[in-house]
Structures are given as structure tokens and as C-alpha cells.
Amino acid sequence: MPTRGRPKRDRKQRREGRLDVRVNPSEKETFKLAAENAGQDLSVWIRIQLHQAARRELGEVEAGLKGEQ
Fold it and tell me: Model's pTM, two decimal places?
């Protein structure tokens, strides 16, 4: 008998962590609209935006450290 449901993800692809962020209703609506505009689920859009912001921030930190040497 075939199994039902979504196939299990590889261990490396599992999202086991959770990040709770409190926002006001206006912020949430803005994020939802931006996600819809991008054709993405809200959680996917937020993850992408956070990754981009983190890379920018880390790049700026690394650039600052290189400038101090």
C-alpha cells in the first residue's frame, strides 16, 4: 500500500527551529502584502528577507574589520 502525505525531508533540510517575533498589525499586513507581491508564503518571504539582511550586516562587519587592519 502506498504511503500518504508529503515525503520526509532530508535531515539537513528540516526546519526544526522556531523564531517568534512580535509585530503590530500594520507591520504584519505590510509583510503579508510584500510576500503576496513576491508570490511567496509569508514565512518564506520573511526567511529570505532575514537571510539577506544578515548577509548585508555580516558583510558590513567583515568590511569594517578589514578596514581596521
Answer: 0.68
